[in-house]
Amino acid sequence: MDAFLRRYATPLSLVTGIGISITGILMFFGVRGELGDIHEWLGWAFVVALLMHIVRNWRGLLGMLQPRINKALVGVLGIALTVLVVTSLPLGGQSGGNRAGGPWAALHRVADAPITASAPALGLTSDQAIAKLKAKGIAVENPQQSLNEVAEKTDVELPRIFAALMTEG
C-alpha cells in the first residue's frame, strides 16, 4: 500500500487539482455546458487523491503544524471555510430545484414574482428594473416575467441579476 501511495498520491493530487482549477476558472468566466458536471467529478477525484496524499504524508503534515503560527493559520482558514460552507447551505429545506429555505426564502420569493411585483421590493419601478437589466445586456421580454425566468432565458446567474438591479446608475 505504501508503494502505491508513494507512486500515485502526489501526481493524482496535482492532476486533479489542476483540473478543478481550470474548470473552476472557466465556470467563473461564464463557460457552461457540461463543465459543471466535469468540475464536480474532478472534485470527487481530488478528494480521493487528497486523502491518499494525506495518508502518505501524515508525519510531514504534523511536522508542518508544530509552529503556533501554522496552527493559527490552519485554524483561521478552517473556520472561514466552515462559515462559507454553512452560510451557502439551503437552510430550512428545499422547495423545488435548488431553492434554499430559511434566510434565503424571501429572496427566492422576490425572484419568483413578476418584475411588476419584485421591483418595488428592491426600491425600483418595473420600468426602472427593466431598464437596469437591459443596460447590463440582460434581455427582458415583458414585466410579467420573474427574475428567475429572465435568468433562465438569458443564461445569467440570479446573483448577477440582483447585482445589476441593486447597483446605482
Low-confidence stretches: 92-100
Tell me the overall shape: elongated
Tell me the radius of gyration: 22 Å
Count the DSSP helices.
9
* Total discrete domains: 2
Structural class: mainly alpha
Q: Would you count the extended β strands for me?
A: 2
Fold blueprint:
Elements: H1 2-28, H2 35-56, H3 58-64, H4 68-88, E1 91-94, E2 100-101, H5 105-112, H6 115-121, H7 126-135, H8 147-154, H9 158-166
Helix pairs in contact: 1-2, 6-7
Please tell me about this protein's structure:
It is a single chain. The protein has helices at residues 2-28, 35-56, 58-64, 68-88, 105-112, 115-121, 126-135, 147-154, 158-166, and strands at residues 91-94, 100-101. It is mainly alpha-helical and 169 residues long. It has two domains: 2-88, no CATH class; 100-166. A two-stranded antiparallel sheet has the order 1-2. Strand 1 (91-94) and strand 2 (100-101) form a beta hairpin. Helix 1 packs antiparallel against helix 2 (35-56). The termini are far apart.
